[in-house]
Amino acid sequence: MTARLSIASIFCLLLFALMAGCIGDQAPNTQEIPVHSYRVVAVYPHDPEAFTQGLVYKDGVLYEGTGRYGRSKLRETNLETGEVIRSRSLPPQLFGEGIVLWEDRLVQLTWRSGIGLVWDLENLTVAGTFVYPTEGWGITSDGRDLIMSDGSSRLLLIDPETLRLRGKIDVQSNGEPLPGLNELEYIDGLIYANVWKTDEIAVISPERGEVVAWIDLSGLLTEEERLSSDFLNGIAYDPESERLLVTGKLWPKVFGIEIVKSEGSRPFGIS
Protein backbone atom coordinates (compact mmCIF):
# COMPACT_ATOMS: atom_id res chain seq x y z
CA MET A 1 0.00 0.00 0.00
CA THR A 2 2.79 2.42 0.89
CA ALA A 3 4.72 1.50 -2.25
CA ARG A 4 1.67 2.11 -4.41
CA LEU A 5 1.16 5.53 -2.84
CA SER A 6 4.78 6.44 -3.41
CA ILE A 7 4.59 5.47 -7.08
CA ALA A 8 1.35 7.44 -7.46
CA SER A 9 2.95 10.43 -5.78
CA ILE A 10 5.97 10.27 -8.06
CA PHE A 11 3.71 10.01 -11.12
CA CYS A 12 1.76 13.12 -10.00
CA LEU A 13 4.95 15.07 -9.43
CA LEU A 14 6.27 14.15 -12.87
CA LEU A 15 2.96 15.11 -14.48
CA PHE A 16 2.95 18.47 -12.66
CA ALA A 17 6.53 19.19 -13.72
CA LEU A 18 5.68 18.36 -17.33
CA MET A 19 2.64 20.66 -17.29
CA ALA A 20 4.65 23.47 -15.71
CA GLY A 21 7.29 23.08 -18.38
CA CYS A 22 4.69 23.35 -21.12
CA ILE A 23 3.23 26.48 -19.56
CA GLY A 24 6.69 27.97 -19.33
CA ASP A 25 7.31 27.26 -23.01
CA GLN A 26 4.14 29.17 -23.92
CA ALA A 27 5.17 32.32 -22.04
CA PRO A 28 6.28 35.22 -24.27
CA ASN A 29 9.99 35.72 -24.74
CA THR A 30 10.51 39.17 -23.23
CA GLN A 31 13.49 40.87 -24.79
CA GLU A 32 15.01 43.79 -22.99
CA ILE A 33 14.97 47.09 -24.86
CA PRO A 34 17.73 49.72 -24.39
CA VAL A 35 16.71 52.86 -22.51
CA HIS A 36 18.69 55.94 -23.53
CA SER A 37 18.98 59.20 -21.63
CA TYR A 38 19.76 62.70 -22.89
CA ARG A 39 22.06 65.68 -22.58
CA VAL A 40 20.63 69.21 -22.87
CA VAL A 41 22.80 71.28 -25.23
CA ALA A 42 20.50 74.29 -25.72
CA VAL A 43 17.35 75.84 -24.29
CA TYR A 44 15.06 78.13 -26.27
CA PRO A 45 11.99 80.15 -25.28
CA HIS A 46 8.57 78.69 -26.09
CA ASP A 47 5.10 80.21 -25.81
CA PRO A 48 3.58 78.68 -22.63
CA GLU A 49 0.12 79.18 -24.13
CA ALA A 50 0.91 76.96 -27.14
CA PHE A 51 -0.78 73.55 -26.93
CA THR A 52 1.91 71.90 -29.05
CA GLN A 53 0.79 69.06 -31.31
CA GLY A 54 3.52 69.02 -33.95
CA LEU A 55 7.00 70.42 -34.65
CA VAL A 56 9.10 70.70 -37.79
CA TYR A 57 12.53 72.37 -38.04
CA LYS A 58 14.05 73.74 -41.23
CA ASP A 59 16.85 76.27 -41.79
CA GLY A 60 16.61 77.93 -38.38
CA VAL A 61 12.83 78.12 -38.48
CA LEU A 62 10.55 76.11 -36.22
CA TYR A 63 7.10 75.32 -37.60
CA GLU A 64 4.58 74.46 -34.92
CA GLY A 65 1.05 73.11 -35.05
CA THR A 66 -1.04 73.82 -31.96
CA GLY A 67 -4.37 72.47 -30.77
CA ARG A 68 -7.57 73.29 -28.86
CA TYR A 69 -10.87 74.27 -30.40
CA GLY A 70 -10.97 77.93 -31.34
CA ARG A 71 -7.25 78.34 -30.57
CA SER A 72 -5.52 76.01 -33.03
CA LYS A 73 -2.80 77.55 -35.17
CA LEU A 74 -0.01 76.92 -37.60
CA ARG A 75 2.96 79.07 -36.65
CA GLU A 76 6.39 79.85 -38.02
CA THR A 77 8.79 80.94 -35.27
CA ASN A 78 12.41 81.90 -34.82
CA LEU A 79 13.95 79.05 -32.83
CA GLU A 80 16.57 81.18 -31.10
CA THR A 81 14.23 83.93 -29.88
CA GLY A 82 10.82 82.26 -29.90
CA GLU A 83 9.50 85.21 -31.94
CA VAL A 84 6.46 84.35 -34.06
CA ILE A 85 7.25 85.23 -37.68
CA ARG A 86 3.90 84.18 -39.18
CA SER A 87 0.79 82.65 -37.69
CA ARG A 88 -2.44 81.32 -39.16
CA SER A 89 -5.55 80.33 -37.23
CA LEU A 90 -7.53 77.20 -38.06
CA PRO A 91 -11.34 77.33 -38.31
CA PRO A 92 -12.78 77.16 -34.79
CA GLN A 93 -14.37 73.75 -35.37
CA LEU A 94 -10.96 72.18 -36.09
CA PHE A 95 -8.56 70.96 -33.40
CA GLY A 96 -5.04 71.18 -34.85
CA GLU A 97 -2.66 68.24 -34.62
CA GLY A 98 0.64 67.06 -36.12
CA ILE A 99 2.50 68.66 -39.04
CA VAL A 100 5.04 67.56 -41.65
CA LEU A 101 6.86 69.22 -44.54
CA TRP A 102 6.43 67.74 -47.99
CA GLU A 103 8.26 69.52 -50.81
CA ASP A 104 6.91 73.11 -50.85
CA ARG A 105 3.87 72.22 -48.77
CA LEU A 106 3.15 71.63 -45.12
CA VAL A 107 0.56 69.02 -44.16
CA GLN A 108 -1.40 69.43 -40.94
CA LEU A 109 -3.75 66.93 -39.33
CA THR A 110 -6.78 67.69 -37.21
CA TRP A 111 -8.04 65.59 -34.34
CA ARG A 112 -11.59 64.25 -34.73
CA SER A 113 -12.86 65.98 -37.86
CA GLY A 114 -11.12 63.59 -40.29
CA ILE A 115 -9.81 66.57 -42.25
CA GLY A 116 -6.20 67.32 -43.14
CA LEU A 117 -4.95 70.71 -44.34
CA VAL A 118 -2.30 71.28 -47.01
CA TRP A 119 -0.55 74.64 -46.57
CA ASP A 120 1.43 76.53 -49.19
CA LEU A 121 4.68 77.45 -47.44
CA GLU A 122 5.39 80.58 -49.49
CA ASN A 123 2.36 82.54 -48.32
CA LEU A 124 1.14 80.18 -45.57
CA THR A 125 -2.34 79.75 -47.00
CA VAL A 126 -4.44 76.60 -47.29
CA ALA A 127 -3.86 75.11 -50.75
CA GLY A 128 -6.08 72.07 -50.26
CA THR A 129 -7.66 69.57 -47.91
CA PHE A 130 -7.98 65.79 -47.68
CA VAL A 131 -9.89 63.31 -45.55
CA TYR A 132 -8.99 60.20 -43.54
CA PRO A 133 -11.20 57.68 -41.70
CA THR A 134 -9.67 57.99 -38.24
CA GLU A 135 -8.47 60.49 -35.67
CA GLY A 136 -5.40 62.52 -36.56
CA TRP A 137 -2.54 62.75 -34.03
CA GLY A 138 1.05 62.87 -35.31
CA ILE A 139 2.58 62.83 -38.78
CA THR A 140 6.02 62.50 -40.38
CA SER A 141 7.54 61.31 -43.65
CA ASP A 142 10.19 58.79 -44.70
CA GLY A 143 10.60 60.49 -48.09
CA ARG A 144 8.21 58.07 -49.74
CA ASP A 145 5.08 57.98 -47.58
CA LEU A 146 3.49 60.26 -45.06
CA ILE A 147 3.26 58.33 -41.79
CA MET A 148 0.51 59.26 -39.35
CA SER A 149 -0.61 58.17 -35.90
CA ASP A 150 -4.15 58.09 -34.57
CA GLY A 151 -3.55 57.50 -30.86
CA SER A 152 -3.62 53.73 -31.19
CA SER A 153 -0.76 51.26 -31.68
CA ARG A 154 -0.85 51.54 -35.46
CA LEU A 155 0.79 53.92 -37.90
CA LEU A 156 -0.96 54.68 -41.18
CA LEU A 157 0.85 55.18 -44.49
CA ILE A 158 -0.46 57.93 -46.78
CA ASP A 159 0.48 58.45 -50.41
CA PRO A 160 1.74 62.08 -50.48
CA GLU A 161 0.55 62.58 -54.07
CA THR A 162 -3.01 61.28 -53.75
CA LEU A 163 -3.27 61.78 -49.95
CA ARG A 164 -4.97 58.40 -49.67
CA LEU A 165 -4.22 55.64 -47.19
CA ARG A 166 -2.18 52.80 -48.65
CA GLY A 167 -0.93 50.75 -45.72
CA LYS A 168 -0.27 50.49 -42.00
CA ILE A 169 2.35 49.50 -39.46
CA ASP A 170 1.26 47.73 -36.28
CA VAL A 171 3.69 48.80 -33.55
CA GLN A 172 4.67 46.43 -30.77
CA SER A 173 7.10 46.37 -27.91
CA ASN A 174 8.17 42.84 -27.00
CA GLY A 175 5.13 41.37 -28.69
CA GLU A 176 2.63 43.70 -27.00
CA PRO A 177 0.76 46.48 -28.89
CA LEU A 178 1.97 49.97 -27.94
CA PRO A 179 -1.03 52.34 -27.79
CA GLY A 180 -0.90 56.13 -27.45
CA LEU A 181 1.50 56.84 -30.32
CA ASN A 182 1.41 60.60 -30.81
CA GLU A 183 3.78 63.15 -32.39
CA LEU A 184 6.24 61.55 -34.84
CA GLU A 185 9.63 62.28 -36.41
CA TYR A 186 11.46 60.14 -38.97
CA ILE A 187 15.24 60.14 -38.42
CA ASP A 188 17.83 57.98 -40.19
CA GLY A 189 15.48 55.11 -40.97
CA LEU A 190 13.69 55.05 -37.61
CA ILE A 191 10.44 56.59 -36.35
CA TYR A 192 10.63 58.54 -33.10
CA ALA A 193 7.24 58.71 -31.38
CA ASN A 194 5.97 60.53 -28.33
CA VAL A 195 3.80 58.20 -26.26
CA TRP A 196 0.77 59.98 -24.82
CA LYS A 197 0.89 60.86 -21.12
CA THR A 198 4.53 59.79 -20.72
CA ASP A 199 7.97 61.43 -20.69
CA GLU A 200 9.27 58.86 -23.13
CA ILE A 201 9.99 58.56 -26.83
CA ALA A 202 9.65 55.17 -28.51
CA VAL A 203 12.16 54.52 -31.29
CA ILE A 204 10.45 52.27 -33.84
CA SER A 205 11.74 50.16 -36.72
CA PRO A 206 9.23 50.77 -39.55
CA GLU A 207 10.22 47.53 -41.28
CA ARG A 208 9.50 45.33 -38.25
CA GLY A 209 7.00 47.54 -36.44
CA GLU A 210 8.98 46.98 -33.24
CA VAL A 211 10.28 49.35 -30.58
CA VAL A 212 14.07 49.07 -30.72
CA ALA A 213 14.86 51.66 -28.01
CA TRP A 214 13.32 54.06 -25.53
CA ILE A 215 14.48 57.59 -24.73
CA ASP A 216 13.61 58.69 -21.19
CA LEU A 217 13.11 62.48 -21.14
CA SER A 218 11.97 62.80 -17.54
CA GLY A 219 13.47 65.74 -15.67
CA LEU A 220 13.46 68.30 -18.48
CA LEU A 221 11.11 70.59 -16.58
CA THR A 222 11.42 71.65 -12.97
CA GLU A 223 8.69 70.64 -10.55
CA GLU A 224 7.42 74.23 -10.58
CA GLU A 225 7.29 74.32 -14.39
CA ARG A 226 5.38 71.05 -14.50
CA LEU A 227 2.54 72.52 -12.45
CA SER A 228 1.43 74.74 -15.34
CA SER A 229 2.42 72.41 -18.18
CA ASP A 230 0.87 69.44 -19.97
CA PHE A 231 2.48 66.32 -21.42
CA LEU A 232 5.63 66.04 -23.50
CA ASN A 233 4.62 66.35 -27.16
CA GLY A 234 6.77 67.65 -29.98
CA ILE A 235 9.84 66.25 -31.75
CA ALA A 236 11.84 67.95 -34.48
CA TYR A 237 15.28 67.12 -35.86
CA ASP A 238 18.17 69.37 -36.85
CA PRO A 239 20.28 67.27 -39.26
CA GLU A 240 23.22 69.68 -39.23
CA SER A 241 23.80 69.47 -35.48
CA GLU A 242 22.27 65.97 -35.21
CA ARG A 243 20.21 67.01 -32.22
CA LEU A 244 16.58 66.63 -31.31
CA LEU A 245 14.34 69.58 -30.50
CA VAL A 246 11.67 68.63 -28.00
CA THR A 247 8.92 70.42 -26.11
CA GLY A 248 5.43 69.81 -24.77
CA LYS A 249 1.94 71.19 -24.51
CA LEU A 250 2.03 74.52 -22.65
CA TRP A 251 5.78 74.16 -22.01
CA PRO A 252 7.80 77.36 -21.50
CA LYS A 253 10.87 75.98 -23.27
CA VAL A 254 12.11 74.06 -26.29
CA PHE A 255 15.10 71.85 -25.50
CA GLY A 256 17.91 70.97 -27.86
CA ILE A 257 19.16 67.56 -26.74
CA GLU A 258 21.67 64.89 -27.67
CA ILE A 259 20.84 61.25 -27.04
CA VAL A 260 23.11 59.49 -24.56
CA LYS A 261 23.07 55.82 -25.41
CA SER A 262 22.92 53.43 -22.50
CA GLU A 263 23.71 49.78 -22.04
CA GLY A 264 20.86 49.58 -19.54
CA SER A 265 17.64 47.93 -20.63
CA ARG A 266 14.25 46.96 -19.31
CA PRO A 267 11.37 44.70 -20.30
CA PHE A 268 8.27 46.01 -22.08
CA GLY A 269 6.40 48.64 -20.14
CA ILE A 270 6.40 52.38 -19.58
CA SER A 271 7.28 53.60 -16.14
From TrEMBL:
Q: Could you tell me the keywords of this UniProt record?
A: Transferase
Source domain of life is Archaea
* InterPro entries referenced in this protein's UniProt entry, alphabetically: QCT (IPR007788), Quino_amine_DH_bsu (IPR011044), WD40/YVTN_repeat-like_dom_sf (IPR015943)
Q: Span of the secretion signal?
A: none
**Among its keywords, does the record have Nucleotide-binding?**
no
Q: Name one Pfam family in it.
A: Glu_cyclase_2
Parts of the chain that traverse the membrane: none
Give a GO molecular function annotation for the protein.
glutaminyl-peptide cyclotransferase activity
* Protein name as annotated: Glutamine cyclotransferase
